Every structure is written in C-alpha cells, then in structure tokens.
Prior knowledge:
Blueprint: H1 5-19, E1 25-28, H2 42-50, H3 66-69, E2 72-75, H4 78-87, E3 95-98, H5 116-138, E4 146-149
Parallel strand pairs: 1-4, 2-3, 2-4
Helix pairs in contact: 1-2, 1-5, 2-5
Amino acid sequence: GNICRSPLGEAVLQHVAKQRGLEIFVDSAGTAGCHVGEEPDSRTADICEKHGVPINSVARRVSREDFNRFTHILAADESNLTNLKKIQPKDSKAEVRLFGSYDDNQPIADPYYGGTSGFEKCYEQCLRYSNKFLDEVVGRVSATTAASNL
C-alpha cells in the first residue's frame, strides 16, 4: 500500500546515502494501489522522527516505467517480489531483488497491524539493508545510482 515499510525504507536509504555523501534518487511505491495519495502512516513518521530520519513521501503504485527509470527495485517481501516480477517488462534495466537479499535474505514484515515494536524492527532492518545495499552497489555503479524501495 506504500504507507509503512516502503516510505520507511525510502527515507532510511536516502538518509544513509546522504550520511555517506552519496547523491542518489530514492522513491518508494507499492504493488497495490489502496493508499495512493496518502502520507506515511503516523507510526512510520514517528519512528523516523525518533531516529532523526527525514521523511517526505506520498503513496503511489509502482508503474511499468519504474523498471527503466530506476537501476534497482527493492521488494520488502516475497509477495511483492513476485508481483514486481510479473509486471517487469522484458526490456527492463532495473535489477529487481528482495531488499533483505543484501544481508540476511529475510523479508521485512508488514508492521501495519502491530504495535510500535514492529515499526522499530522494520526500521532496524531498513537501516541494515540500506548499509549493505550501498556497500554492494556503490562498488559497482556510480554514486548517482537511482534506487527504489518497494
């Protein structure tokens, strides 16, 4: 839906990149369009504020154009990864992977129906995966690489 994990991942990846002095374009999108136009869930915003991570996102749905606009598309879980691969054009230039594949290969659980601890765990995973993603990708491509967290 693009109001919990995705905007949190977007904000954290952008923040970590900025701390490293990297200029990258990060945008989040959901594979479902149920919250298009909405701001992030208040609990997502609260976790970002707690950790000093700026967040400025409006929910949108992933588009076919994203597969050529971005070099990397990162899925939060296997369900989203499957959905992304179904709509990925054959001539896509984007590498589509599970965000967790850069570390422990674990999905990021949807914290929407849980409490604050779920959002905290989501933040911790996004922070770890962002660092691992940048460690791997910056060595292969320029610092202006575009990345999207789904």
